[in-house]
Structures are given as structure tokens and as C-alpha cells.
Amino acid sequence: MKYLVTGGAGFIGSHLVDALIVKGHQVIVIDNLSTGKKSNLNPRAKFYKKDIHNYKSIKPFFAGMDGVFHLAAMPSVQLSIVHPLESHDINANGVLNVLMAAKEAGARRLVFSSSCAVYGDSDGKILKKENMKAAPKSPYALHKYIGEEYAKLFSDLYGVETVNLRYFNVYGPRMAESGPYSGVIKIFLKQKADGKPFTITGDGKQIRDYVFVEDVARANILAMRSKKAGKGEIINIGSGKNYSVNQLADLIGGPKKYIAPRAEMRHALADISKAKSLLGWQPMISLEKGLKLI
Ligand code: UD1
């Protein structure tokens, strides 16, 4: 099969490209290299440096594609709060451009990388289920929600099959080293290596669900071919296990330093029963094991 991966030079996208190539698929990557890196790119993928907010410039690359994986994004909750216009341009308008290009090219299915940030605080409920009301707390979360709604609309209106995967906290090799795109696991590992204390935001009791990047890549491939999905379903992709930031720090092991809290959702734990029933997916790498693979 021929697949187009937007954001295929990025952290998650590049693992997906690797998995597709191992399975013998032909892969085209479009990526503007804003957070992605050429060094992440599988040499057997065809790469084009393109920006998803320019519809005309990306459209030609969708011709002849069997399916599209849309991962290109400005993937930072905190950055979107400071730069809502840029976030909207990439995380909302960009999805529309990619959906439109997929539709025009006659691609059968598009798998969209969304985020558990869409849930927001869910009336204090820790366990997030797909039928809960969306309550975005940041521009990033709102834009991902808009993307999901567009994907569903394109299925209803135009018959493009779509699946929305709501990722929880993805970690693994090739995570951003530093800056706003760097996740807490990478930050803590670097702090440990540098002999510094872990910087814990707020009281550290906030809960996250950490899912290994190769498990996420596999979920995408299953979502592309599942016969039980394709009409804009929302599907959680997490480990189903919860860790507070304090527990994560204890697992990695080292001294803690408490810093100011962030404007962010308090708790996120995935109910992964829908992923099991619709995709036949479940995570294979535990956090304890995954930490050793970074
Ligand atoms: C992450 C993702 C985002 C995704 C979202 C889903 C990153 C950078 N962002 O956001 O793309 O959509 O999950 O909810 O991976 N923390 C500390 N100390 C630090 C850094 C962070 O205690 O030095 C805390 C944060 O306040 C947060 C938790 O660790 O409570 C996780 O933070 P982070 O890895 O940045 O991810 P999210 O903000 O959850």
C-alpha cells in the first residue's frame, strides 16, 4: 500500500514510518521540520519539506495514496497558550487542509492524531472515556477537538473514512531533548543525567498515563485497516495505567524540587476498552520497560 504520513520526521511520526516500511509499504513523508528532524527519517521513505498550512503546496503529494496518517502538529499545550494563532493555523486549519487534500485525491482513509487534552477536567473524573463531553482547557486542546470534528464531518459528508486517535502521554526514543516540545519523562531523565533534582510542577499529584511510542505506531496501523472503524470514531490510546508525577519521579529515582503549577488538566488516565474492541489493540510495553528503551 501507499501511505502519506504528515509529520513523518517527528517523534511519533518517524516511528510510524519505520513500522510501515518494515511491513513493506511505500511511504511519503511531508514535514516542515519545525519540530521534526531529518535524522529521524527512514531513508526508505520519500521526504518532502512542506507545510500543512499551505494547501496548494501539499495537495500534489496525496495523489495515488491509499491512506493518510496525519501527525503534523504544534504539539505543545503550553506553547499554544502563548501562541494561539499559530496553534490554530497548524492544529486546526492544517487538519482541514490535509482532510481536503485526502478527499480530493480519493484516499480511502485518514487516521488523525488527536490528544487526550480534549477531555479537559471531565468534572474531576480521572478515567477518561470516549463518550465524555469534550472540555478543552487550552487552544491546543480546542484545536485538536476541531480536528476530530472535521474528520467526522468529512466521513459523513464526503465518505472519507476517518479515525481519531486520542493519545495520552507518548514517550520513547527521539522525544524532544528540551524546549516546549519536551515531555516530562525526557526532562526528568536529563535532569538525572545532569545530577539535578526533578522539577515537579505544583504538588506533583496530577496523574498521567504514559504510552510507549512503538505501541502508538502500531495503533495507527491497526486504525488504518480496522473494519470496525472509519466513521470518525474517537479512540483512546493510552496504557490504562496511572502514575502521578511524584510516582514517576520515584520510579526514575532522584531528589525532587517543587516548582510553580501549570495551567493544565489535572488527571488523565485512559479507558482503553474501545481500542481493544475496535482495533484489537493493547499496549505491549510497560512504563518500567519503556524507560529503559529511551
Ligand atoms: C502532553 C503532550 C501533549 C499531549 C498531552 C495530552 C508533551 C510535551 N506534551 O502534555 O502533546 O497532547 O500530553 O494530555 O509531551 N511536569 C513536571 N515537571 C516538568 C515538566 C512537566 O512536573 O519539568 C508535569 C506537567 O506539569 C504535567 C506532567 O508533568 O503535569 C506531564 O507534562 P508533559 O510531559 O509536559 O505533558 P502534558 O502537559 O501532559
UniProtKB/TrEMBL annotation:
Organism per entry: Candidatus Harrisonbacteria bacterium RIFCSPLOWO2_01_FULL_44_18
Family annotation (PANTHER family): DTDP-D-GLUCOSE 4,6-DEHYDRATASE-RELATED (PTHR43000)
Domain NAD-dependent epimerase/dehydratase as annotated: residue spans: 4-238
Family membership: Belongs to the NAD(P)-dependent epimerase/dehydratase family.
Protein name: NAD-dependent epimerase/dehydratase domain-containing protein
Pfam family, one: Epimerase
Family matches, as InterPro entries: Epimerase_deHydtase, NAD(P)-bd_dom_sf
SUPFAM superfamilies: NAD(P)-binding Rossmann-fold domains (SSF51735)
Domain of life: Bacteria
Gene3D superfamilies from the UniProt entry: NAD(P)-binding Rossmann-like Domain, UDP-galactose 4-epimerase, domain 1
Coiled-coil intervals: none
